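User: I'm preparing a small set of examples for a lab meeting where we compare how different chains pack in three dimensions. I only have the primary sequence for this one, and I'd like the structure in token form so I can line it up with the others. Please keep the answer compact; I'll paste it straight into my notes.
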Amino acid sequence: MASSVGVDDYALTRVPDSARYSWWSVAIQRFGQVSALSQFLLGATVGFGMSFWQAFLAFTLGSVILELITILVGVIGMREGLSTSMIARWTGFGRGGSALIGLAIGISLIGWFGIQSAVSAQGLVSLIGGLPEWAWALVFGLVVTAIVVRGFHSMAWTAYLTVPAFLILVGWSIISELSSHDFGALVSSAPPGPGLSLLEGTTLVAGGFIVGAVITPDMTRFNRSTGDVVKQTLVGITLGEYVIGMAGVLLAHAVKTAEITTIVTSSVGWVGLLIVIAGTIKINDWNLYSSGLGVVNFIGTVSGRKAHRGLITAVLGVVGSVLAAAGILGAFSDFLTLLGVAFPPIAGIMVAEYFVVKKWRGELEAARAKGTVPEDAPVWVPATIVVWIASALIGKFVDWGLPSINSLVVAFVLYVIAGKLGLVRGIGRSRTADADPVPAL
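Assistant: Understood. Below is the structure token output for the 441-residue chain.
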């Protein structure tokens, strides 16, 4: 049954060299993640409170932060060919910690999958009607689910279609809106709303994609080299942040409001409808894909049985679609935002373990030489859990600086210190059943 539902897509094993893709194929999908409708809203929010050049500097600083994190975590994914939650077993978290990460990823991203489906449904109802909002949410969610069940290959072709379409349509809508304004006057105009500081603007930019940066291995495990990871990151994030984000800044100055998304999608008629469709599909497929990988790892860790990625993805897609149709996902927004605070320290700990402490780096390298995963992993690493919780609390409650970056840097530093003091030790060893043929769910 499970094997007939999509493809497993190396959910619990290394992606072999034969299944890797060109950097451009992956870069298109990375750009698709960053160049979403939400990026317009981010740009509009920043532009509403900052001048054009202040906003440009905020986007530059935020992009550099995101690119650095994405490249470091992405290189780990490329080298090991493993998903984020699988890599976590040997980058400081152990099987227990990786299960928690998988569950957090699964809950967070299926929530955002549902929210994106609900937002799209609202746009579809206002633009063409025909069906009630709940029905559009269900239909849209199930269409994206069908794409993701078929795996990375299907998502790559979807990106080839939706990313250019999104850019062309957005370009059309922006030109339509800005054609009646003097470009020089917009660039030199004062911010139309309450002022934002450079720190606040940079925080918005860096925080807007931090979760996507943390789960980068889910994507870069299909890359062929470190150079490919660097190229796709520079192209995908730079273009996504500047092209879409700065367009939002200009629109905010042109129409003197931060509510740009509504203007862009409603002022150009049927083009707005296509923007909604293209913009949502190319971000929502990765929400569901990474959610499925996280839950597969959680099930494998807790039950010791190998769950099929396609089947789990189908179930999660249906659940997310139904929740979106039921209209109850709005109640989860605060919870999903809270989960977001827990993600940055994960990247800090993974990078610290893999590149500095290297407690389990040798096990990964030895297994990689054989094309497998390590035969066993620590069950728990108490020091990591302490560092994770402490860093997340700092990100939540310390107001100074960039909250997401604060928590990430603190996690990195604390883990390195714990490693140098010999405090990073695993408790118990658990055989990696995923490396061997086992009963499938």
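A couple of notes for your slides: The chain has 20 helices and two strands. The longest strand covers residues 376-380.

User: Perfect, thanks.
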